[in-house]
């Protein structure tokens, strides 16, 4: 049905402003896309036209010694990552590549899309999320007005922190045309300690002990045997994995210390730098739940038959037991990242079991997001954590303060707006 | 009500919203109502008793509030705000009153809402590495409470002994360890917020990231304009095993700046990098006598923390880089006492400057670090032009500059000259790609400079966000934004010349 809709292809931010202003004036709505690689994530949006910003490309500023990078929204993330890697730097929030779980090509997304979904990888627990690295923004509001917020320096309290608000807004507040991010040095080396044969409760305790030590753990995950069998290096055992990164003498010292911290949980095995990197890529991308595994051998996201995939954020100690319970009651597969605070939950079929998932999460606090489901299921259940009362009303007013006519991505996050 | 005209450049610097005569006239009734709502003991209306609340740490500006209310529970805060909302009475929230930008300056027709009774630590959750605290708990109080477990709360503004976490949230406070450990916004997981209507919302919690729009992001640093925070969940960090510092003197600010850039380019993120210029070094050394070299133009304190092996390794690298950049003196702390000594001078820099000058203004711009030599040179020119001395301390790692402008308030015209000098410095910061304020906030102090950084569209969008939280502009009006607007007028679409814009786009 997409082919029936008009697609607008702005060349620069002025074009974007004109396109949105025109839609605003004509009472029309726009679906904003970059590479379109995350289009199946979130509620389907029924807009009058598509605003394709993939032509707004290019890194506009990169000063490695100032730890800052600006790029236009359509710039491919892989291009930015390669540029940074060449100077020994990185996006420290370790962006997840959603391609595999959504059944698309790997490394296909743009900076704008990465920013819009605010999904950070394992290093979220130590380095922060996408929003934590957002410094500045140029954007077009739903009124078609071009505005800027933030800056290019780390320390800045001049005006409201709109760049962070835009991270995770799924393009519902405005079209972010240029984004400025803090970048950081890549760690010189890494290793991972594995502690096998732990129950979910013991796993939560082991991760707590590691995170509560001065070892500066930069990745902490727990995978039950079944899922662990599809993650490199875990040998299909119930395993806690803990990553250490930094300069070699430091990693070595912390490895020795962490072994002692973990002694009550059993002997730790070591993955060297390469094996460690492979494991954490898998953790980052929810690789055990890649669409190929559940959706057939082509990898194409047909939407015909595919298991629903949830991403739950909760208190770290609550995660592993909650994951185990949900796996039991729903016949689901799970693993935990973020020291237990992030639960990936893959269901055996298209039914997302939203009520059961959210009811199980409720006592612990947090939120559950349906990352993958058929279009029908995403239309039927709340993809994002439902908001209640005053918070729902406030969120709707905030949306309207940027996009009063609901021009941008209508219905993408919430039914009706 | 209350909308001021745009401030012309020659108008007095501090045009505050015109007091609402109706509210002033009804004061006695309002005080009586508030006493009924929250109890007589929580309401202060005698001018003498209200005196301590007439200013925050920006003491050049003072104003007695309509009345002071000191609620003790979230329900009381909600009741007061709901009452004030119904009667269109302005409210100014206040923590410990340590703001350097006038964020808590009262309004003559406004209720001053003090959160000083919210001093409980509600929960320490070591397993999840967080604490749930009330907004009146001091920054250092959090660290003190969790220290027995070996943890601490990372942001450490210099006022940490007095400033409260509620104020830190309002200002998105920083400190000297921001480069590695982030600002308040990176270290707060959740908050309970009372809106001007009295509605209570909870944002975040013990989990990471938001499930919908990340409203916590804009509440942090909103300077009390969006809501009143009544509970904060903070992230706790384990104390590093060791911390070591190196004190390095340079013959020029250029070489010191070069050294900072090369440390970072080498992939090293120190826990803190501070720079002081010759005037600041001299003032600090005369005050605390910790052995700072006096024959250098710039002094760096570089602190590294982590495992002993890491500190030793990185100290070696930093030392080599510093010598390469032409360091003339270099001392590595050999013990904790010596490390604290290195910091003692830096931490005493403000009072030290206070000793050599009757008064000083502390500015707070941030610049891209490599612009430092240029900015310092321009500042020296400005110093000559205004006939006022300036000492510089600089959070060199993150580019946050604190020029201290020395003046004498009793000398006619000097305060005005100092303020004009300060404004010129901030304009300079913006001109080189920086910002007006790195950590002290806009408040009233930098309010009228906001157009230096943001155009009318930028500011209108920010004010619309304000309207989403506070539709009647009752919460802390007159701060941050140079012009007050009614929310209704913010809703209008600006169409130039009556013509609708039509795009000239490739279409498919």
Automatic annotation (TrEMBL), chain A:
FAD-binding PCMH-type domain residues: 1-186
SUPFAM superfamilies per record: FAD-binding/transporter-associated domain-like, FAD-linked oxidases, C-terminal domain
Ranges in a coiled coil: none
Stretches that traverse the bilayer: none
Keyword Cell division assigned: no
Keywords: FAD, Flavoprotein
PANTHER family: D-LACTATE DEHYDROGENASE, GLYCOLATE OXIDASE SUBUNIT GLCE
Name of the protein described by the UniProt record: Glycolate oxidase FAD binding subunit
TrEMBL record, chain B:
Domain of life where this protein originates: Bacteria
InterPro entries: FAD-bd_oxidored_4_C, FAD-bd_PCMH, FAD-bd_PCMH-like_sf, FAD-bd_PCMH_sub2, FAD-linked_Oxase-like_C, FAD-linked_OxidoTrans_Type4, Oxid_FAD_bind_N, Vanillyl_alc_oxidase_C-sub2
Bilayer-spanning residue ranges: none
PROSITE patterns referenced in this protein's UniProt entry, alphabetically: FAD_PCMH
Cofactor(s), names only, from the UniProt record: FAD
Enzyme class at the top of the EC tree: oxidoreductase
Protein's UniProt name: Glycolate oxidase
Source organism of this protein record: Xanthobacter agilis
